[in-house]
Batch of 4 targets.
Target 1
Amino acid sequence: MKIDSKAIKELAALLNETGLSEIEVADGDQAIRVAKGGATVVQGYTPAASPVNMNSDPTTPQPASMTSDTVAHNHPGAVTSPMVGTVYLQGEPGTPPFVKKGDTVKAGDTLVIIEAMKVMNPIKAEKGGTVTQILVSDGQPVEYADVLMVIE
């Protein structure tokens, strides 16, 4: 396997920029995980079902993904982040958001954009319905499997 040192450097810079302690990007069956203290390249990657809290100190504040409404995480209409990055609710600054609470969407509609490694990734609705909750704000860092919104 060829190790992409440029990608590792970009991920490390993104860690510092966002204040995250770990970031992972997958492409097919390969993934690169960069954490404070090192980098790992993994073949045969299988993503985890949910984020794991590695912090055992209960007095330390948890990231938003660990403290947001548990009902939303278990909701069948939860739209989760497929990657680590920065979420944007509109295509360009000053333009209307892709969706608002109460909007009706259909499968394939763009819900948000997640920027990862300077690439804008549109996140599309997998099914139609009504947006009942938006759990992220514009410009917020998100992690893999964070709930972005709920569509019923």
Target 2
Amino acid sequence: MFLALDLTGTFAFALNGALTAIRVARLDIVGVITLGMFTALGGGMVRDIILDALPPATFDDWRYLAVAAVGSLVAFVGGHSLDRLAGPILVLDAAGLSLFAVSGALKGLDLGVGLTQAVILGAITAVGGGTLRDVLIREVPAVLSSGIYAIPALVGAAVVVGADRAGWAEMPAAIVGALICFAIRMVGVRFRLDAPAPPARGRGA
């Protein structure tokens, strides 16, 4: 269950990172695959290091590297045929965000961390890869600049943790948490919603 979610999120984020490399950074095949793999694997590596689950799953299981590489290659081969890449990039980013928020929270729970810590781990897993992606192409990370990004990850992870606490099975808890995270992220994108900002300073302040 956890492995399936993690690998699906890895594939989605690999596509997202590779499409970003094509559309935004206009990189060659090496750059596309590199950015795709950093985007796909970065959040999980940070999560595993925090959990002291060493070596990280990325290096302990060949399937993570294989799925990330395949996803990047798929985007490289098929990405140029898409007329508009902005839409697919946003959808894949939301999908990866949702799946990693859920898988990160579940892994934390499986390893016995507290409820709050599991929610935080879910959010870190979700935003870590995208943050590395944006840093590598010299953009302000989406988690800092996007209106609604970390909030959906926190909500999705919290839903999973709450459902687990209520005695739900992992599968329905993961599905509900991922769907809620995805929906919040896409509503934020569709209506350009912003997270709360500090009040503007008045004149003479």
Target 3
Amino acid sequence: MIGGAVLILIERVGHRDSIATVHDIDFKHALAIGLFQCLAMFPGTSRSAATIIGAMILGASRPAAAEFSFFLAIPTMYAAGIYSLLKHLDQIQSTQLLTLAVGFAVAFIVAWVVVAAFMRFIQTHKFTSFAIYRIIIGAIVLFVILRPL
């Protein structure tokens, strides 16, 4: 919910778009955005939201912030996937390799399509709708967790 409120604040107050494209992000900004990514270690914090918010605070445009956030996700997701695969390697049977390969390929294609659609969407739209979604989902989760039994 806090991340949603921060997104709305950034969109309302405005931010300087001194970093127009992902190619304009220098080492200093990349390191700072990476430090924002560390906020995702706190429960309930989205890694992508932390990096997008951090990039926008540092002056990145919405498209540059989102694209860089996705670039930051690539090594993280690969490392997590390889770690999980190695951790459970003894449980995978040779007959499951084709299923695993097809699942990987389908997930990759779907992720590619969704990211491409999202990148087109944020070219002309603000993050306000995502912020409202985060706040509503957060409120529902809090209600479910905190309601008396």
Target 4
Amino acid sequence: MGIIQIKEAALEKLKRAPKAAVYIAAAAIIAAALMIIKPPKEAEVEKVSLPAQENRFSAESYAEELEKKLTEAVSKINGVGEVKIMLTVEGTEEKVYAADTSESDGRSESETVIIGTKEALLKSQKYPEVRGVLVVCSGGGKPAIKEKVVNAVATVLDIPTAKVYVTDGK
């Protein structure tokens, strides 16, 4: 027996029943039909697979990458010779995904926004915070060179100059 036949049989019986029963039965039939056509929202939601762990990097690899770039930049400052940089960071990479928030009956529900082939929409990405920098370089004992290196490192990393220590190397 198909949905149309069930509907017709139910409507025929409803025509003979009292009005209150008619409304209740009609509501039940409509609800059942809607559930068959469109399952509840919970059944629609697919599990989101966020980017794989392999796409993330560690705080150590982040610090190493910054050290390489800073070493290259600082070594080009006039008066600076060989450079070795050590960087300390705190925390880990944090990705914030866009969420679609809806409110109903005073409740707020939030779902991650999915684009394309089940990828979460990245809203922002926060990197580990730089806690301090040690720069060992030839020429780092001279006040003028030291000041140039401290200001360059502090500017590039957007940290206070007090977190940058420059010393002369061998």
